[in-house]
Amino acid sequence: PYLTDRYIQPALSLKVDGAPLAITGVMKPFDQSVETQIDLNLNDIDIPYYTAYFQPLLPFELIDGNLSTHLEISYRVSQNQQPKLKVGGDFSLSTLRLEQKGSPLFFLPLLLVNLDWAEPLANEYHFADISIYNPQLQVSRTTNGRLNLLDLFPQAEAAPTPKAESAKTES
Questions:
Q1: How far is CA 8 from CA 59, 83, 140, 161, in A?
Q2: pLDDT, tens digit (0-9, with 9 covering 90-100), for 59-94
Q3: Does residue 67 contact residue 91 with C-beta atoms inside 8 Å?
Q4: Which helix (H) or strand (E) holds 165?
């Protein structure tokens, strides 16, 4: 019983693609409500390197971009409450560059976000500050008059009209 209110400090240290990764945190595993907290500090993660896994799904090509985070993530689960995931801290995107069919589409030199706190499971987000520096968006019209930005969003298939349905049943 005397251990129920004590925190332990789990740690994991490894190399991922040659870069060191260390995950540390605190945990209260023996209490009625299990609490876990980790600090997620990432520096200049090369986003295009990891988008190779889902690039075919995107209607644009991610050419450049780096992600850095200094986040505190906590998770609490208890018998009498819903699980609670809470995130707070800072993250940044730098040199984000997108292309569409080989042409420049979007460039964002820097995005800084200070997340006061967020509870993703409850869909609640509270930002202390969001700073966007010098975004550039390339909008063009194709030869048929369509804007290039419309190709970024999938088109919904038109529902068949009642006339088309009745024509099918008659033939």
A1: 45, 20, 56, 63
A2: 888 999 999 999 999 998 888 888 899 999 999 999
A3: yes
A4: helix 162-170
